[in-house]
């Protein structure tokens, strides 16, 4: 890795979009699984009180004794909060509904925007040897999402290929600019990925065209097709890469991982900074 700001540590990516249902959790789980399949050691941070990433990676409620809430607000041994998943090389800090009160509990903390940043940089983290940390953000631009953006090197934005997809993006970009001013001036945009893409649908094509016209190279070449196997996988508590390894969805997430790994071989100057 050539990013001078992280000589040896993991690349930390926040998966964010304040709209719900656009594919944040699906992308977190399956991109993480695809990176893990490529031999990267990957940690998912479930930062959504709904805990969908935890469920989708097979972590039952009874295994969530210590969660993102404790990671943020308590002095906890990372060995207790980082759980192994069924997928080799893939770990998770799970979430429960407890996290919904974190927004308030965070407010009274003077380091409120930096809690995740600090938690991910404690020295005990080094012993896990992670290459990538993916943060599954809640559908909001609240203090939890700000923690993700302050703690991350970049933001990856899933964009659902449907009407109004680009609406709200300006608000997201504004938040990113504010975060750059208020504590993380190096925050980059990793890219925008079109999700639930349907090649036969004119609307999908229109959204793709709009996104590429407006955002240029920030849009990943890889698009994630709408694929029923992708939506079925979470109810079997596994990534689509394990549930149906040859499905279109699994192949697309492998392709996205390849594109992301390739982008991260570039020198910092070559990575677009918008
Ligand atoms: P978010 O985390 O942004 O709220 P999710 O990842 O939970 O969004 O996705 C919303 C819904 O869309 C879920 O039911 C999910 O299974 C489904 N979904 C996501 N991506 C795809 C896809 N590529 N094909 C089919 N269904 C998908
Ligand atoms: Mg989600």
From TrEMBL:
Entries under Pfam families matching the protein: AAA_31
Task: List, alphabetically, the CDD domains matched.
Answer: ParAB_family (cd02042)
InterPro entries according to UniProt: AAA_dom, DNA_Partitioning_ATPase, P-loop_NTPase
SUPFAM superfamilies noted in UniProt? P-loop containing nucleoside triphosphate hydrolases (SSF52540)
Q: Which residues form the AAA domain?
A: 11-189
Q: What's this protein's function?
A: Involved in chromosome partition. Localize to both poles of the predivisional cell following completion of DNA replication.
By what name is this protein known?
Answer: Chromosome partitioning protein ParA
């Amino acid at each position: 890795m050539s990013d001078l700001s992280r000589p040896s540590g993991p690349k930390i990516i926040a998966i964010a979009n304040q709209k719900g249902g656009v594919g944040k959790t699906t992308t977190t789980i399956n991109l993480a699984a695809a990176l893990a399949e490529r031999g990267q050691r990957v940690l998912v941070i479930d930062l959504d009180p709904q805990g969908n990433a935890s469920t989708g990676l097979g972590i039952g409620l009874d295994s969530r004794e210590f969660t993102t809430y404790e990671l943020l607000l308590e002095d906890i041994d990372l060995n207790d909060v980082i759980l192994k998943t069924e997928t080799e090389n893939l770990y998770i800090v799970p979430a429960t509904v407890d996290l919904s009160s974190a927004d308030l509990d965070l407010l009274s903390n003077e380091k409120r925007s930096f809690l995740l940043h600090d938690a991910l940089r404690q020295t005990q983290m080094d012993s896990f040897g992670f290459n990538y940390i993916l943060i599954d953000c809640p559908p909001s631009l609240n203090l939890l999402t700000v923690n993700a953006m302050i703690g991350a090197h970049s933001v990856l934005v899933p964009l659902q290929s449907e009407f109004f997809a680009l609406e709200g993006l300006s608000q997201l970009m504004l938040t990113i600019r504010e975060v750059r001013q208020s504590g993380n001036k190096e925050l980059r945009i990793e890219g925008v990925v079109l999700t639930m893409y349907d090649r036969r649908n004119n609307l999908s094509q229109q959204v793709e065209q709009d996104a590429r016209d407006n955002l240029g190279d920030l849009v990943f070449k890889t698009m994630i097709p709408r694929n029923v196997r992708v939506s079925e996988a979470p109810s079997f508590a596994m990534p689509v890469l394990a549930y149906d390894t040859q499905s279109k969805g699994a192949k697309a997430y492998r392709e996205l991982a390849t594109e992301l790994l390739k982008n991260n071989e570039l020198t910092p100057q070559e990575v677009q900074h918008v």
